[in-house]
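Note to self: keep these together.
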Amino acid sequence: MKPELSIVIPALNEGKNLAKLFPEIQRSLAGLLDRGAYEVIVMDGGSRDNTREISRESGAKVILQTGSGYGNALVEGFRNAAGDYIVTMDSDLSHAPQFILSMWQARHEADIVIASRYVRGGCAKMLFVRRVLSRLLNVVFTKALSLPCKDISSGFRLYRALVVKGLYLESRDFDILEEIFIKCYADGRSATEIPLRYVPREEGRSHADLRKFAVSFSKTFWKMWKLRNSIESADYDERAFNSRILIQRYWQRRRFKIITDFCAGAGSVLDVGCGSSRIVRGIPQAIGVDVQMNRIRYMQRYKKLFANATVYALPFRDGCFDCVICSEVIEHLPSGEGHINELIRVIKPGGKLILGTPDYGTLAWRVIERIYRAVVPGGYADEHITRYDKRGLTEILQKRGLSVEDARYVCGAELILLCKKVNS
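Structure:
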């Protein structure tokens, strides 16, 4: 029988602890899953005690790691797990098996369920220095990278297997926990936390090397900072709307105000290239379209209608929308009018097209783009392959049967046009 749940346990010289842990797992899961519906995988990092013998006697599958370190244990454990869900936990009895039940019950709530020491109801019995370092690490990662998580360093988690099996993971130490969470979140995956009462290990000593720990976490933080500030992150637009950088937050909110004012009174609204923008959320009747599936996945939490499609082939019949919004999209596309023709096609006669793009005819945008590229490497500015100015874009639209009714700017740099479809 294919197991529903795989429990992956990294271990190195943990025989005494595992002898106590396995019976607890069996008692905790008795009656929850049918016999044989779960498997226990021990990833052995080269133990010299009786870790492998104890594990096999208890019915666990033992796999000898081909690479060293906690990160490799998880990567290889994911690869060998057969369950639809995967739990990762420590072998030193600091993770009580009864919490597996709580994570299992929450499995339909999110893609990742974290047993958290730092949410209400959770606690951690740790030495003072270790507790301070743990808190500091969590604050730095979650606040600096805008992550909805209190305990990003907890290794006691439940994952949907399909989510983690598709990840490319580089970390090979304990920093893999941060990398997994951040890459999943950037891919539009959801997470929830349940309270955990964390206790110290009973036998043996920790295998963490603080010096190596600090180096690996610094490297991972830098890589994840670049990911979180790139367009690859599913919540890129939403994060910018709430940015601590005042000019970025103002820019996003000014764009939101102009566009929502322009589409006031429209019945049916389509936002093409919606990303995680507040625009589609701020217009109750709006439907969103985006080519990036991770953004659609992320936005599903807001219970709106979305379609995964390209601007060159919108999955709607001719003339079915009163208003079509396309903001910060066309500059990323090759020059040509195929995408503009498709936008116009789905607009009703007399309907509106709201089109936003940087105006390269302005000095303001050219200066801003240079600064933006230097401050936010990997941001949208690096992907602008077609440069429009107001006069050229107006001519293109007029040739396609649109009249330009209004034009406004964000900071004198981003142009937002309100157009009317004159021809049927």
